[in-house]
Structure formats: structure tokens, C-alpha cells
Input
Amino acid sequence: MNDLAAFPVTQKWPALHPDRLQLYSLPTPNGVKASIMLEEIKLPYEVHLVSFETQDQMTPEFLSLSPNNKIPAILDPNGPGGKPLALFESGAILLYLADKTGLFMAQDAAGRYETIQWLMFQMGGIGPMFGQLGFFSKFAGKDYEDKRPRDRYVAEARRLLGVLDRRLKGRDWIMGAHYSIADIATFPWIRNLIGFYEAGELVGFDDFTQVKRVLAAFGERPAVVKGLGIPKRP
Ligand SMILES: N[C@@H](CCC(=O)N[C@@H](CS)C(=O)NCC(=O)O)C(=O)O
Output
């Protein structure tokens, strides 16, 4: 068995089951991508809560794993070559777990790149842009008198929703008949936009009927229901 003691993160968050994949996270739209994927692939894992209230993400132990001070991060004792592998960035974690299990990723080369393309669309577009919209519409930025930043992100969120809506027309999921890591990356953010950020009306969410349809299907998956609550907040 691989010894995880060499990883400083295990000093703050001891591994009770060092043979299992270790997840360091919080149930945010980026965090739940990892927990939903782990529930989907049914890989045994041990979860550790990284509390933002106590700034856990800024501790040297966490930074040794995730130098960008963001969740989620994982430590897999059984990585490539049987050696432990540490990873941060949710998109990289999804790709790694898809490769490790052969699940939720097209197996032909062209389909694989197409899946990665839509995963990147979420990572570079939907995630960062919706995040800015949340800041300017619900959090500190909502009190700014100048509404141009908010309007810019509303317009950009609408544009991205339109791109996704057109892609989903005639398809069950982003990659067609097959549910994939592109869906696991994307739909927690759509859910967050209209749920936690309460920006549904602002972006005219009702216009995006395909996105609405697939969001509903996503929310019915047992692994999604479970993964959305992992790790439990105290
Ligand atoms: N691109 C990163 C973004 C991760 C991210 O923004 N995580 C947020 C929570 S959703 C975080 O850890 N924030 C803590 C901080 O900024 O201090 C990923 O997809 O993993």
C-alpha cells in the first residue's frame, strides 16, 4: 500500500483509509464536480472538508496540494504506475478520473477531443463568467452604482447559455446520447446560477429551454443528488 504520510496535506487531514482516493473539497459548484464524478464512478474515496470560514485553503498543508488555494483537490494513492498522484483543478480531476475508469468519456479519439472541448468551454467560459456575474449581482459588487460590470456579465452569461442551448438541441446530453464529464462540469454551474446566485430572471433563463430540460435530467441522477451534498457542511 502507498504511504500518504509524505504528503503534508495528510498532517492536517489524516487519511483514515489511506488505500482510498482522498478528496479535499466543499460543496460549491467546482467542488461538487469531483464528488458527483466519484459517486458516478463508484470509486471508494475518503472526503475531507476544507472550510473557507477558517481559511483552510490558505494553510501550508492545503497549499502543498493545491498551490492556487482552490478546492477541489485530490490525492489518489493508486495513481499512474501504482504511485500516489496529487491533482488540483476540477477539469484535470474529471479528466483523470474518466481516464482511470474509462467512464463518462468517449472512447474514440475524435469523441474524446470533442468531450474535452466542451469541458474547456465550461472551465474557461461558464465557470469564470458566471462567477463574476454572481459577484456583481448578489455579492459585494451588487452595491456598485455603475451597473456596466454587472450588465457585461449578464450579457456574457446569456451568450454562453445560448451556445449551450444550441448544442443541446436534439441531444440528450452535451455529447449526445452519452452523459459525460462535460455535463458533470457544466450543470452544477447552471444550477448555481439560478439557485444560489438567484440570477435566473436576470439572465432570462426561461428562454433556454434545452438547458432547462437537461438541467432537470441531471438533477434526477442519484449520483448527482448525493454528490451535491459532499462533503457535508458542519
Ligand atoms: N478553476 C478552478 C476553480 C476552483 C475554485 O474557484 N474554487 C473555489 C470554490 S468554488 C475556491 O476554492 N475558492 C477559495 C478561494 O478562492 O480562496 C477549478 O475548477 O478547480
Summary: The chain has two domains: 4-103, 109-221. The pocket of glutathione is lined by residues 28-31, 52, 57, 69-71, 89-91 (CB under 6 Å). The chain has a mean pLDDT of 97.
